[in-house]
Amino acid sequence: MEPKYTPITRRSIGSRKFLIVCAVLCTILFWIAGNLYAQRGPSVPTGIQNDLDHTNAFVNHPPAAAETQPVPTIVVPIVPAAKATNIPNLKHLWGVPETSGHLRGEGVRNRTQIGREKASLVMLVRNREQKDALMAMKNIEERFNQNYRYPWTFLNDEPFSDDFKVQTSRIASGEVKYGLIPHNEWSVPDFIDTDKFHEKLKEFEAKKILYGGSESYRHMCRYNSGFFFESDLLKDYDWYWRVEPSTGFYCDQLYDPFTFMRENNKRYSFVMTLYEYRSTIETLWQATREFVKEHPDYVADDNSAGFIVDGYSGKHSLQSKDFNLCHFWSNFEIADLNLWRSKEYREYFDYLDKKGGFFYERWGDAPVHSIAAALFLKKDQIHFWHDMGYRHPPYERCPTDEESHDSVRCMCPFDKAKSFDFDGYSCQKRWWKFHGQNDEGKPIPKYKIPDF
């Protein structure tokens, strides 16, 4: 006897079949979507991706191998990743795809230089300054170098610790080099009267002159004045950017300053200028006068002597006019290494060195570099970075123009009127006046800015 289906029974069976078909189709669609998701991964906001990149850089970096003996020069071109054992899997948490080469610390770290110039960031630093060095590095990497991957060169009068190498190589986006300064470049030379030198140390300390009683500070000034540019680690470079611990930048650097310098025929640049303590350089200008009297041809015709010598009216006036103490603050320098390697500068440094002023007084590398650049370079070969915000305790400055603040994300924790440019201890207004500008540096000359 065949079963009898009422209209209600038929509709009930049809509904069940429809639901079964829908369930099967949904299962297939979810399976396909899941496979696509696993292959592509979700899009991660740029800010979060950057945080993940930075986190991986720190958790996946291997420790440096222990040294069996001091090695003056250590190069860290590429750093393979090590596995972290107790760190949460952030990639799984955020759905970051398992691809190598995109995240710092993932697989092999890509340190290939992007910038076009033969240049390096250079830091003279000691192990005990590691924390401040890392902060300065992180700042300049985020503001500039992560987009160019220029190498870092670290110099020290003592061997760098393994931890220093590990931590700094984690922060650096490019190749990293570590150099040990030769003893003869960081010691009292034979031609110095050591008894007289130690008497001068006591005398300067008693007068409470800044770093007056420090022997190591004098070694540092002499080394930066006459030796750093001859380091084997820098022999393949034409340009350097000097970076010091505890320094930082308030604005993004959206173009390559090395390329800017080369394309605009600049050879020395600065971001702050101020007065030197006369008590530290009592005889520096007299020694300079003697040198240029012997080598008048070394002084450029269209020079910047008018900035450092009040009343300058030509080479002949150098013998009668005094140094006004204005100099470029050398804790920040972007410059041509070949300027210091030149015959003119080498002879100038050797002449000063034999005078003994680095030890008997406290000649700094800043006034030495400044005087040399002002005399040996043409006026338009020295550049002031008006669009950079910079701090070096106790001073800081920011761009004076609104355009720079709008375009390079300046984050200055002070009013522009309080920038060091307008401080009474600054020589910036002298520089502007020397270049025919007003007290705010206007009109600012327009330069050829490289593509970025």
TrEMBL record:
Pfam families associated with the record? Glyco_transf_15
Biological processes per GO annotation: cell wall mannoprotein biosynthetic process; protein N-linked glycosylation; protein O-linked glycosylation
Concerning SUPFAM superfamilies, the annotation shows:
Nucleotide-diphospho-sugar transferases
| One MF annotation (Gene Ontology) recorded for this entry | alpha-1,2-mannosyltransferase activity
Keyword Oxidoreductase on entry: no
Going by the UniProt record, its keywords in alphabetical order are: Glycosyltransferase, Transferase
Q: Could you name the Gene Ontology cellular component terms for this entry?
A: Golgi apparatus; membrane
What does the similarity note say?
A: Belongs to the glycosyltransferase 15 family.
Q: What is this protein called?
A: Similar to Glycolipid 2-alpha-mannosyltransferase acc. no. P27809
